[in-house]
Design a protein that fits this description.
Length: 108
């Protein structure tokens, strides 16, 4: 019998999750780059080469549109990329608002 997967809230993670654009850059692009340029991949995705670079550098968030396009390209769907984005965004906002959130919890 396998053990159940235990989930941990994002707030308790001390290091940030990896930006999904960087995962795309490190895990997906090397294989794609064997056959196409970044400009060609951007064209396939329907995004500019510059925007694709910014996503892969973690400078901009993956939008739902971009998540759908990457999911279609990779074959794992939109939800995977949006979930990674949500984890990344939740970690950032939780860290940024930590003092405020602590006050809110103290008042309840």
């Amino acid at each position: 019998m396998s053990q159940a997967h235990k989930e941990y809230p994002v707030e308790n993670i001390s290091r940030p999750p990896i930006h999904p654009g960087k995962i795309f850059a490190e895990e997906v692009m090397p294989e794609l780059r064997k056959k196409r340029t970044i400009g060609e991949i951007g064209s396939v995705l329907g995004v500019s080469r510059q925007n694709l670079y910014r996503v892969m550098a973690g400078e901009v968030s993956i939008t739902p549109d971009t998540a759908a396009r990457i999911g279609a390209l990779v074959g794992n769907g939109t939800r995977v990329w949006l979930a990674m984005r949500a984890d990344y965004d939740a970690w950032k906002v939780t860290k940024r608002l930590a003092p405020t959130l602590k006050k809110i919890r103290a008042e309840v």
